[in-house]
Amino acid sequence: MMGGCHTVDILVLKLTVTPVLIGVSALVGRRWGPGLGGWIVGIPFTSGPIALVLSISQGWHFAGDTAVGTLAGTGSEAMFCLAYALAASRFTWRLSLTVGILGFAATTVALLRLPLSVAPALAIAVAGVGLALALSPRPAGGSARSHAGAPAGFGDIGARMVVATAVVLGLTGAATLLGSTLTGLLAPFPVFGAVMMVFSHRLQGGSAGIAAARGLLWGLFGAALFFLVLATLLPRFGLISFLPAVLADLVVQGSTLPLVRQGSPVSGPSPTATV
What we know:
This protein has eleven helices and no strands. With 275 residues, it is mainly alpha-helical. It has one domain. Helix 6 (118-135) runs antiparallel to helix 10 (206-237) and helix 10 runs antiparallel to helix 11.
């Protein structure tokens, strides 16, 4: 009976945490544009709940090893953003998305060949994000947002919530088969970030897709610190480790906001953005 209740609790957690977080972040992107929308999805809305569920279902040590993989996988996520942004400056969203996925996959395959621990994983994450920010093009006119196009509808936001929740269910369900390292490396795949880049690119042009990609890159510094804290503390202290991890993420996330807004000379919602 206790085991059944435990399983039900985990399922409820999977079905509530991610969609709520994704819904909130989608509304931010809908209101303030792709740059800030990309930045807020740098918060680990998908990979964070995956770590939480694995901590409960697979144990703290398994989840801690997964956090090491996710920390390193932040570098793969950065390569997705870089590849998408480079392609978006010239090509359609379909080709840009394909190139981004290939960038993530190639980096993930390379990382699978490395013996990962906390220090190398942190170096990979920070170097990957820094390199991507340095090499990715800036949006036309330096704007982190655009007044063209239309905001995301509530149907689109609902679809994002469903997709992100499906990823959490899939990865946590297959974690034992995949192992902690591969689960961690796959967890940072930017499901919601990719949707935001594609949606912005399709409706507002390549510059908006680039803005979303660069916004996400700035947000990844906080995500890296989140998983650094988890990888360091989780095997020893358990679930309480999520509290300092979340606080550290929010502090770093807040510190990067001015850097994102520097590329957005216009404050407030665009004329077409409604809540």
